[in-house]
Design goal:
The protein has 17 helices and 18 strands. It is of the alpha/beta class. The strands form three sheets. The chain has an eight-stranded parallel β-sheet. The protein is globular, with a radius of gyration of 21 Å. Bound molecules: N-(iminomethyl)-L-glutamic acid (NIG) and fe (iii) ion. N-(iminomethyl)-L-glutamic acid binds next to helix 4.
Length: 432
């Protein structure tokens, strides 16, 4: 008896698998191999990839089974869904006034000091009804889904007291339950010290003694993150916070070397964090430490772009040194209000000099490694979730080079066609 084949996708122009020869993230020269099968096909059974390869290989693997649904890719690019390993996608409202202020010359820290920035988002979030917060966030996620994001990590960190951090984590859990995306939650109670504390240490105590035990008990977070930055949490406080998180069984992440290099990346590596993120100002020693570790460097090019900065993380040096890098949008209401992964990849290519295949592997398989999801998603390989996106392009390099519009036309999540752009075939220039 042949297997039940729920979906058969044929006729890919380029099937970009991002598959890897061995477990773990791609590094160095392996990062620039997109794992392309020309004219490829995929068979899906029970939400997972049953067979993948050339059309002949796939047809012989399904052994005459009649697929429930067949899709002709018509020579288009087929890729795994994007995996976003670093976002702040649950928030109340955008801070577009700060975008203008930065263009006029204010720094991120100037804006923070006068009560804008994260402080403003904390006030807005605390005041917003939980159901409205959920619905706004759900609509945002659905737009990202239409552009090919199938897995997303979302951080808390605009609540900054137990009640509001839990409100955010509940909203994040509901997003996982009520959207097609896979959602991974990170507790970022240590995003900033909220008003009402005399010093940073007393807030660190509250995070460790009150928030962490309740968050861990709730089971609503898989990871813990800390914003290690001058004027926010220093390296010693970051270490104390992360050690406490680790004792509660949470995986560890750090915002480090974003504005100043104050030792956060070193703490991340020493504690075996799954990722160190931002790294705009990473030092040569930091690069060397990361390269020799299992910690992934998550780079966020849309943040430099959103901050109107010309300074990007030194991605080339990191790749040459052997750091396992991933990419994400950092989608948030202030520093990175663009939720477009396709744009993030384009900026990574033109401004950080990643070649398109490096950027794509960094935003799929390595991104999945950065949130512990790589055995489930991030590449098109037998047994993995069928999280597959069809792009209206003949060559995957058009995605970063033709920046500014959404190229995704069909999104398949867990083997089901969850989103199809109306009439994409009749509007397409592919195949003419
Ligand atoms: O990753 N750097 C700290 N946190 C966020 C900014 C969030 C915000 O501006 O609201 C970031 O860029
Ligand atoms: Fe961030």
């Amino acid at each position: 008896m042949p297997e039940t084949i729920d979906l058969l996708l044929l006729g890919a122009g380029q099937l970009v698998t991002c598959g890897r020869p061995e477990k773990g993230p791609r590094r160095g020269p392996a990062l620039s191999d997109p794992g392309i099968v020309e004219g490829g096909a995929i068979a899906v059974s029970k939400g997972r990839i049953f067979a993948i390869g050339s059309e002949d290989e796939v047809l012989s693997a399904i052994d005459g089974a009649q697929p429930t649904k067949t899709i002709d890719a018509g020579g288009r690019v087929v890729m795994p869904g994007w995996v976003e390993p670093h976002t702040h996608a649950v928030f109340a409202s955008y801070r577009a006034d700060e975008y203008e202020a930065r263009i006029r010359g204010d720094s991120y820290l100037d804006i923070e000091r006068r009560g804008g920035g994260i402080k403003k988002s904390v006030r807005d979030l605390r005041a917003m009804d939980e159901d409205i917060l959920f619905e706004k966030s759900r609509r945002r996620l659905m737009r990202m889904f239409e552009e090919g994001v199938t897995t997303i990590e979302i951080k808390s960190g605009y609540g900054l007291d137990l009640e509001n951090e839990m409100k955010m984590l509940r909203v994040i859990a509901r997003l996982g339950a009520e959207t097609p995306l896979d959602v991974v939650a990170t507790f970022l109670g240590a995003h900033q010290v909220p008003p009402g504390y005399d010093d940073t240490e007393s807030y660190v105590d509250v995070v460790i003694d009150e928030m962490l035990p309740a968050v861990a008990d709730s089971g609503l977070a898989s990871f813990m993150d800390v914003f290690c930055e001058k004027g926010v949490f220093d390296a010693a406080q970051t270490r104390r916070l992360l050690e406490a998180g680790r004792n509660h069984g949470l995986g560890l992440k750090v915002h480090s070397d974003e504005i100043f290099a104050i030792g956060g990346t070193e703490v991340a590596v020493e504690l075996g964090a799954v990722s160190a993120d931002h790294l705009t100002k990473i030092t040569p020693d930091g690069i060397r430490m990361l390269a020799e570790s299992g910690t992934i460097g998550v780079l966020l090019p849309s943040t430099s772009f959103g901050l109107a900065s010309r300074h990007f993380a030194p991605a080339r040096e990191m790749v040459e040194a052997g750091v396992a890098i991933a990419l994400s949008s950092d989608f948030n209401p202030g520093s990175a209000p663009s939720s477009s992964m396709q744009l993030a990849i384009s900026i990574a290519c033109s401004q950080m000099r990643l070649v398109p295949a490096e950027a794509i592997n960094a935003a799929t398989i390595n991104a999945a490694c950065a949130i512990g999801m790589d055995s489930e998603t991030g590449s098109l390989e037998i047994g993995k979730k069928a999280d597959i996106v069809l792009y209206d392009n003949e060559d995957y390099r058009e995605i970063p080079s033709r920046a500014g519009s959404n190229h995704a036309v069909l999104v398949i999540k867990d083997g089901s066609v969850a989103r199809e752009l109306n009439d994409f075939r009749s509007r397409s220039e592919v195949g003419l």
